[in-house]
Amino acid sequence: MNLDGRQAFLNDKLVDITPQEFDLLVVLIRNRNIALSREKLLELAWGYDFEGDTRTVDVHITKLRKKLGLDNYIKTVYKLGYRLEVLD
């Protein structure tokens, strides 16, 4: 990740992610190993005034998993939301 340049890399190759996907990924990284509800993710990554549905989070998580190969790292927390699982 290059936070200042708002870029994500996989195997040293730049991955094309949307600005919203980037914001969501930053929230997950800053809160790694913490389970966050879909509502909290909406609040942190989209902002308080987001009028959409929590299903938006699911769609963006699916895209991040696929684009960055994060299937084994972004865990679904049953009936809550998601957690980025990393070993420190």
Please give a structural write-up.
There is one protein chain. The protein has helices at 19-30, 38-46, 55-68, and strands at 8-10, 13-15, 36-37, 74-77, 81-84. By secondary structure, it is α+β, with helices and mostly antiparallel strands. The chain has a single domain (8-84), classed as Arc Repressor Mutant, subunit A. The strands form two sheets. A three-stranded antiparallel beta sheet has the order 3-5-4. A hairpin with a 2-residue loop joins strand 1 and strand 2 (13-15). Helix 1 (19-30) crosses helix 2. The longest helix has 14 residues, at 55-68. The protein starts with 7 loop residues before the first strand and ends with a strand. The model has no long low-confidence stretch (mean pLDDT 93).
Supply the key terms.
alpha+beta; Arc Repressor Mutant, subunit A; three-stranded antiparallel β-sheet; 3 helices; two-stranded antiparallel ribbon; single chain; 88 residues
Present the secondary structure layout.
Elements: E1 8-10, E2 13-15, H1 19-30, E3 36-37, H2 38-46, H3 55-68, E4 74-77, E5 81-84
Antiparallel strand pairs: 1-2, 3-5, 4-5
